[in-house]
Specification:
single chain, mainly alpha
């Protein structure tokens, strides 16, 4: 049976990491459905959803560099587990807030801030662990498997979260606490080979900003990360799905879970394709095409008022986004030397979180000013423009060949 598994999953330590990702992503996506519904219900204002994203983002630029530096000096499994402990704590506190009625916004904002702190601590280690656990030639396939774990949880997690919320809101957070506990145990059990040579001298400013310096001097990496930033900043309007569920499509909390799961259905499909057959064609043109299609699909689902069309094109954005994510994450893992992976992943995390959390804030602001549908459609159009501009600004990225030919860049 084991020989039928994808090569990366035959490695015991990566399999444990994979199980941890399933548990934590399942919990995160259940919680996201509950928070979205509760927050929007307080004032019926889409800006409140944007404020949640903003609060989650605020700690990241402040903590990312020191967290990345610690990730390159301390055991990465411990850093990852520390962030997961904070995530468990947030879910427990959300349970308390819900038991007391969840009628005011400020507890959700404070807990979103704490979530951002946990992410800042955990994600540099999360990103850096995979290349330590599998041989470099298996990294693209491992990244696809990691995405299957994440996006598969997104397919099921929001739907289950919506159902549990409909039964009793507190159930969502209670189950999430248990899942985060499972993830913590799996991460702490990892046996990671220690391959980083730690300098005996105390770290300085140059050591702290080494990740930024590497990203800036590596044009392919800078182009890939910044492309994701602006594409999702403009086109990532899924934070507004509670508005669509309640006021546009009228499908309720269970429908919200289904809407949030739709992009993941497309993403899982793409990730399975990539896990079975890693990308062999030139990655650069594929990346640019994926971003452009993402923008077109965003325009369609944003303008739709018919649930089947909305679900279909949400699935399309998930499908093409998975190709983009796989190319970006594989590029970052393959061109970055191991001793810098924590700090480079921290920089990448700030870019990605800026696109996700600030993108949620930007979507909320535009929805407040222009209306929900108009803001989503405009964002999709801007995403198409970003793909065209990046082709000209980052020609090495646009011409990038096969991922398997990438090697770590000199520092």
């Amino acid at each position: 049976m084991r020989h039928r598994l994808p090569p990366a999953l035959r490695i015991r330590e990566f399999a444990k990491l994979w199980a941890a990702i399933i548990a934590l992503r399942f919990a995160e996506n259940m919680v996201a459905v509950a928070i979205g519904w509760q927050v929007f219900a307080i004032h019926r204002d889409p800006l409140d959803l944007g404020l949640i994203g903003l609060m989650e983002f605020i700690p990241l630029p402040l903590l990312a560099l020191p967290a990345g530096q610690l990730t390159d000096r301390l055991p990465r499994r411990l850093m990852f587990a520390a962030g997961l402990v904070l995530a468990l704590t947030v879910s427990a506190l959300l349970l308390v807030v819900t038991l007391h009625g969840a009628r005011v916004l400020w507890p959700f904002l404070l807990l979103a801030l704490l979530t951002g702190v946990g992410n800042a601590i955990a994600w540099p280690a999360y990103g850096a662990l995979t290349p330590e656990l599998v041989p470099l030639e298996l990294v693209p396939g491992a990244m696809a498997l990691r995405s299957i774990a994440s996006q598969g949880s997104v397919v099921v997690g929001p739907a289950v979260g919506g159902l549990l919320f409909a039964v009793k809101p507190e159930l969502v957070y209670a189950v999430a606490v248990g899942l985060f506990a499972v993830a913590i145990v799996a991460v702490l059990s990892l046996r990671v080979p220690r391959t980083i040579a730690t300098s005996p001298k105390a770290p300085g400013i140059e050591d702290l900003v080494a990740g930024i310096k590497f990203v800036l001097q590596t044009r392919i990496l800078l182009g890939a990360i910044s492309l994701d930033l602006f594409a999702v900043l403009f086109g990532g309007a899924v934070a507004l799905l509670p508005v669509y569920a309640r006021d546009i499509l009228h499908v309720g909390p269970v429908g919200l879970g289904v809407l949030r799961a739709a992009p993941a259905v497309g993403a899982v499909t793409a990730a399975i394709v990539l896990a079975r057959t890693p990308l062999r064609r030139n990655a650069g043109p594929t990346l640019m095409l994926a971003v452009a299609v993402f923008g077109v699909a965003t325009i369609v689902w944003g303008a739709s008022r018919w649930l089947p069309v909305t679900l279909a094109f949400l699935a399309v954005i998930g499908f093409v986004d998975m190709f983009s994510v796989n190319i970006r994450s594989s590029t970052a893992a393959l061109v970055t030397p191991n001793e810098l992976r924590g700090r480079v992943t921290a920089v990448e995390m700030v870019f990605i979180s800026a696109s996700n959390e600030l993108g949620a804030f930007e979507s909320g602001v535009l929805a407040k000013l222009l209306g929900t549908v108009t803001s989503v459609v405009v964002g999709g159009a801007l995403t198409i423009g970003v793909a065209g501009v990046w082709t000209k600004v980052f020609p090495p990225l646009a011409r990038m060949g096969r991922l398997e030919d990438l090697r770590p860049e000199a520092t």
